[in-house]
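Ticket #4471: structure output looks truncated?

Reporter: J.K.
Steps to reproduce: submitted the chain below (236 residues) through the standard prediction queue, then opened the result file.
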Amino acid sequence: MSTKTILAVDDEPHILELLQYNLESAGYEVIKAETGEEAMDCIENQSYEFAVILLDWMLPGIDGIEVLKRVRMNERYKNVPIIMLTAKSDEISKVVGLEIGADDYLAKPFGVHELMARMKAVMRRSGGVQPTASNEQEEIIKIDTLEINKTRRTVEIDGKSVELALKEYELLYLLAKNKGIVFTRENLLEKIWGYDYLGETRTVDVHVRNIRKKIEKDDTTPVYIKTVRGIGYKFG
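Returned output as attached by the reporter:
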């Protein structure tokens, strides 16, 4: 199966048809699923290699959030970009999806051009952190007991492996590589998400909070990612 294959999951047939038509016109292969169970069958089928998963929130049976959780526990697909498609546009719903591991969030009704732009953004970002050839020198950042290996895309704290979602890893790497430099939330959105995120800086806060929970001994008094009041964040 091509690396340009998209898994589109939605219980509304006309939306699936719309997605299939536009994605195939853009050169993608599309695998469709109308339920969470069908989506999991596709994900657990090792013949598929998905570039992006478009996942509806409200699905019959296993809902989108449960599918998202299961995908992130699947070693093969834990870093595949996932865009949530949903009529839930309130901030709480967005935060829930982002905290569980969604890479982006698009409320219905949405425009095809916007969807394409967001797909390209998440694919570009995910492609930017793939491991390089084993004979190349590894790029490693070490700060105290924190070790970030860009080549292998791994993170360790006190010698123990830390599992980070794709955007969490990219955010941590960017801040650590630029230790001491203050980034505004808007700047981080642009660099990590790769497009104008419509001013939703809450996205950055959610990801920073997730990272702190995983690498800080006490995430209420962080020593790695520091908040710069009224501006954004810096490392150290």
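Triage note (M.O.): checked the attachment and the full token line is present. The CA atoms of residues 184 and 230 lie 9 Å apart.
Status: closed, working as intended.
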